Amino acid sequence: MLKTFFVLAACWLVVAGPVQAQSAPADLAQWVNPLMGTDSKPELSNGNTYPAIALPWGMNFWMPQTGKMGSGWAYQYSADKLRGFKQTHQPSPWMNDYGQFALMPITGQRVFDEDDRASWFSHKAEVAEPNYYRVYLADHDVVTEIAPTERAARFRFTFPQTDSAYVVIDALDKGSYVKVLPAQRKVVGYTTRNRGGVPKNFRNYFVLEFDHDFTSTALYQDKKLAGGTLEVTADHAGAVVGFKTRKGERVNARVASSFISPEQAELNLREIGDRDFDAVRQQGRAAWNKVLGRIELEGGTTDQRRTFYSCLYRSLLFPRKLYELDANGQVMHYSPFNGQVLPGYMYTDTGFWDTFRALFPFLNLLYPEVNTEIQQGLANDYRESGWLPEWASPGLRNVMVGNNSASVVADAYLKGIRGQDMNVLYEALTHGANNPGPLTAVGRAGIDYYKKLGYVPYDVKINENAARTLEYAYDDFTIYQLAKALNRPKKEINLYAKRSQNYRNLFDKQTGLMRGRNQDGTFQTPFNPFKWGDAFTEGNSWHYTWSVFHDVQGLIDLMGGKQKFVATLDTVFTLPPVFDESYYGEVIHEIREMQIANMGNYAHGNQPIQHMPYLYNYAGQPWKTQYWVREALTRLYQPTADGYCGDEDNGQTSAWYVFSALGFYPVCPATNQYVLGAPLFPKATLHLPSGKDVVLNAPRNSADNRYVNGLTLNGQEYDKNWLSHEELMQGAVLNFDMSPTPNKSRGTQASAAPYSFSPAKK
User: Fold this and answer.
1) What ranges does the record give for the region Disordered, renumbered to this chain (predicted)?
2) CB 552 within 8 A of CB 670
């Protein structure tokens, strides 16, 4: 049973009721719990999140820091001490951070070391909202508050009566600089700490301005007091500035940073201007309510609303902005590829292996104006590095497999995103699809084998080769779709269409599953379908067999027809949660999360299998999709510190929840279809940026009534198991007739099935 760790901010203490449409956005931020998923550790992820105190897609996030400097697990719900408040750009604990520095208010003895300055705290005296954070630091009798903008933030420290009030500014190690300017009540500096993906000249420049005179200043060089100076360059530089305060006196600070220059950091303070703390907080709240307000819910339980809007918040954080505005308001960015300052947009901190599946289709549906900037930024990625990043943080990183930038680019264009340079982006896709990159996770490792044999062999020392093959085949499908839309030459279109069928080369008729294959055409031996890793990526054959997003009918045919296909789907849920971890030499957290979920071998905590419950729709049994999606929604997500069933992963696992709670899901990005499930709420309204609405009515929806007995679209009976993007974009009203028993006649015909590259056999 899930623990019931509820973090109840004062703004949550309201009676749940329908959210009514208003001229001003409703206060939907009240439902968001930024602490959802923070009760995690390397051995077991309940989200591996941290409370990101930020604006949507903001360049800088802020977070309370419980972990030691350099730990990817910088905030853990189970911790009882805080070491500081860190500016962070961390997309994942596994990827760690860059551009980071920390502040910490203290009283009494002046100290600098993170352990010496740490303070006990309690979640009972902690408030976490998307745009606001407050906590009481018991050892120092100080309340700290944070209200961010996209590139700046306001801090408010409420001190006791003391002549020994201080704020520590820690620029961290690995090369940093701090300078104190007492006459200006200012501290400036830079930090270079990172975990890769940056050029040699990488720096994050920061500036802090206080509203109180300093009564004392002290600088630290490699944790030792540096006397007689107001400026320090060191491996580990920092400063402590002092104040004399009355009881309850507030010391305010404005802080901003820049990847471009110290002068740009000063310019970024303009985001605050002369607004006081409360005004900045209110501005941030309004920004969140505006983006959250694109989906309004009616009905549902309090926990369901909290879970939904907490997941929606997580879906609107990454990829983050890496661009800044110069003195003339022009968009500029520091290039994490070549270290130059260049014009144009750039976003970063996302892994396409995760987010191509649902997060980017979600942006295309409801936030196309944001993905327009992201796509323009991807063109800049290619211009500046020669490649599209498959995992960016902030530059190219050697993580995961596949070439899924193809899906991200193709789906955006096919869903109507415009303004990006498609000549550059199409060149980037075909370049990446036909060449090995500078890293094994960039371009396509094993591409020569793939082009010659139709698969990446198991026995040529290219890891996770079957996963690569399956993802390359899907990515080739997305290029095929884009090539058609761009009227590319027929020969080119046919090439990618043919390569999209390479998944067939790994299907083993003997086991009915995907299996690694040797260079000579024989299958890997021995073969254990429960073995994680090896030929696959963070999963086993039971998980990756379904990675044929674009041709489910082709997979049905390979398995011997719909009956065998459905039986194999069923088996994933009915198998015991057995596993073989020998490839890793230990039970990795993804395995453990599958084992404890009590859903057989279904591993929802990791991405490869998240679309699998929707595949029953292709075989004429949509009621099984409705059953298993509802099971995942209600059993695997809670609005609590242990609220996810694995890594949240930059919005992907959250976007799965948001889509699925609405009643449909993008099984195959780069097509125009969403595959139907069943809505979770009695009513949801999508406010499209065009001004049109998609209304999803399910008035009889309940915990018992999880099945779709009937569906009308704009008043007409609708018997398909999918919705088209174009129909939704025109505005639509869907009425779901929900029932406690499955309707085994609706959606059973071959004509009801969603798109597959291979047509159903008559």
Assistant:
1) 739-762
2) no
**Helix or strand or coil: residue 505?**
helix
Rounded to the nearest integer, the mean pLDDT of the chain is: 96
Note whether 637 and 49 are within 8 A (CB).
no
Cα–Cα dist 432/323, whole Å = 25
Q: How far apart are CA 739 and CA 716, in angstroms?
A: 19
State the pLDDT at residue 222. 95
Quick: pLDDT tens for 681-713.
999 999 999 999 999 999 999 999 999 999 999
pLDDT at 21 over 60: no
The rounded distance, in Å, linking the Cα atoms of 493 and 433 is: 14
User: Is pLDDT of 169 > 70?
Assistant: yes
Which tokens go with 164?
Answer: 């020994």
Q: Is 607 exposed, middle or buried (0-12, 13-18, 19+ CB in 10 A)?
A: buried
Please say whether the dihedral angle defined by the alpha carbons of residues 339, 341, 344 and 345, taken in this order, is positive or negative.
positive
CB-based contacts of 560, cutoff 8 Å, min separation 6: 512
In the chain the first and final C-alpha atoms are separated, in Å, by 47
Locate 74 and state its tokens.
């910088």
C-alpha 419: how far from chain center:
24
- The torsion angles phi and psi of 274, rounded to 5 degrees, stand at -100, 15
The Cα 644–Cα 657 span in angstroms is 10
Distances from the Cα of 469 to the Cα of 91, 193, 543, 619, angstroms = 27, 36, 15, 24
Q: What are the structure tokens assigned to 657, written together?
A: 């929840």
Contact 672, 725 (CB under 8 A): yes
What is the structure's pLDDT at 20? 37
* Amino acid present at 467: A
Phi-psi region of 408 (alpha: psi -120 to 50; beta: other; left: phi over 0): alpha
**Which of 292, 258, 301 lies closest to 130 in space, CA to CA?**
292
**Residue 188, C-beta contacts closer than 8 angstroms, at least 6 positions apart:** 178, 179, 181, 205, 206, 207, 208, 262, 265
Asked if residues 46 and 69 have their Cβ atoms less than 8 Å apart, the reply is no
Please name the residues in contact with 1: beta carbons below 8 A apart, sequence gap of 6 or more.
none
Q: How confident is the model at residue 227 (pLDDT cuts 50, 70, 90)?
A: confident
Of 131, 143, 136, the C-alpha closest to 280 is 131
Secondary structure letter of residue 743 according to DSSP? -
Q: What is the pLDDT of residues 326-379, one digit of tens each?
A: 999 999 999 999 999 999 999 999 999 999 999 999 999 999 999 999 999 999
pLDDT of residue 381: 98
Matching residue, tokens 């007492």: 182
- Residue-wise pLDDT for 523-571, tens only, equals 999 999 999 999 999 999 999 999 999 999 999 999 999 999 999 999 9
pLDDT at residue 760 in the model: 74
155 sits in which H/E element: strand 152-158
Burial 88-114 (b: 16+ CB within 10 A, else e): bbbbbbbbbbbbbbbbbbbbeebbbeb
* Reported pTM: 0.96
Q: Are 516 and 534 in contact (CB under 8 A)?
A: yes
Partners of 97 in the β-ladder: none
Residue 728 has, within 13 A of its CA and on its CB side, a CA count of 24
Nearest CA-CA partner of 119 in 103, 106, 101: 106
